[in-house]
Design goal:
Layout (H helix, E strand, L loop, with lengths): L7 E10 L2 E11 L4 E5 L6 H9 L5 E9 L2 E2 L5 H6 L2 E2 L1 H10 L6 H11 L4 H9 L4 H15 L3 E5 L7 H14 L5 E6 L12 E6 L2 E6 L1 H10 L2 H13 L1
Parallel strand pairs: 3-8, 3-9, 6-7, 7-8
Antiparallel strand pairs: 1-2, 1-4, 4-5, 9-10
The structure holds adenosine-5'-diphosphate and magnesium ion.
Length: 240
């Protein structure tokens, strides 16, 4: 794989759920070292988009191509996308289940817990039991750090986190990003962007990216909410 390929690129992604088009043509390129925030109201199709990018079988692409480090992965199953460096929480499960290489996952995880000086009791509990929502969010980030992805898709990572957990998660994201790793941070809230500084902000409404800009766009959303952009977008749609 040559160096000049972006870790992630997609072109004209359309997704239908039960014959209703929910994602209506999304193109996005994320270079190494870039954090892109995808922000939009609830129900706008953000999760549908990231699930489809990951290859979730319930979300059918009706058009579009997906590239990881320049390789077309559009036809590959989730665990193969994961092996090529795409990270999403659901994909980690797929990878552990389907990939024989990942049988060492638990061992590596415990070693990682030791390195991070996390209580061994906590590590044992992770391997054996379930966790609360906030703990799971932290572990997603830990898993991400271990898997060394090329592109991390993080959906609503800030929801349900108290401020301490939010800071831990944010620090994790900031640690993982480097010149070969890109991040797509999907969120309804502006809050996490106080800790993770996006290079680009995309506003997502009605299944489309309707605005793209820098961090100032997130600041504008915090001040004004989604209403103003919503109104502007619907006016343009009326004229067209
Ligand atoms: P967001 O993540 O932006 O809140 P979603 O992608 O979850 O939005 O949902 C977008 C739309 O698709 C909503 O109208 C939702 O009801 C619908 N939807 C999402 N997932 C499913 C599903 N598995 N089955 C049926 N409808 C779904
Ligand atoms: Mg969602």
């Amino acid at each position: 794989m040559t160096q000049d390929h972006a870790p992630f690129r997609c072109e004209d992604i359309r997704v239908a759920i039960e014959s209703k088009e929910v994602v209506k043509g999304v193109s996005l390129s994320i270079k190494g070292g870039e954090i892109h925030a995808l922000m939009g109201p609830n129900g706008s199709g953000k999760s549908t988009l990231v699930n489809a990018l990951m290859g979730h079988p319930s979300y059918t692409l009706t058009s579009g191509r997906i590239f990881i480090n320049g390789e077309d992965v559009t036809e590959l199953p989730p665990h193969e996308r994961s092996r090529r460096g795409m990270f999403l929480r659901a994909a980690v499960k797929a990878r552990v289940k389907d990939d024989p290489e990942m049988k060492t996952f638990r061992k590596t995880l415990i070693a990682e817990f030791e390195r991070l000086e996390i209580d061994p009791a906590f590590a044992t509990r992770y391997v054996n039991d379930g966790f609360s929502g906030g703990e799971k969010k932290r572990l997603e980030i830990l898993q991400m750090a271990m898997l060394k992805p090329s592109i991390a898709l993080l959906d609503e990572t800030d929801s349900g986190l108290d401020i301490d957990a939010l800071q831990i998660v944010s620090k994790g994201i900031n640690t993982v990003v480097n010149e070969t790793v890109g991040v797509l941070l999907v969120t309804h809230y502006q809050r996490i962007l106080n800790f993770v500084k996006p290079d680009f902000v995309h506003v997502f409404m009605g299944g489309r990216i309707v605005r793209s800009g820098g961090p100032e766009l997130a600041a504008q959303l915090e001040k004004e909410g989604y209403e103003r952009i919503e109104k502007e977008v619907s006016q343009v749609a009326e004229v067209a």
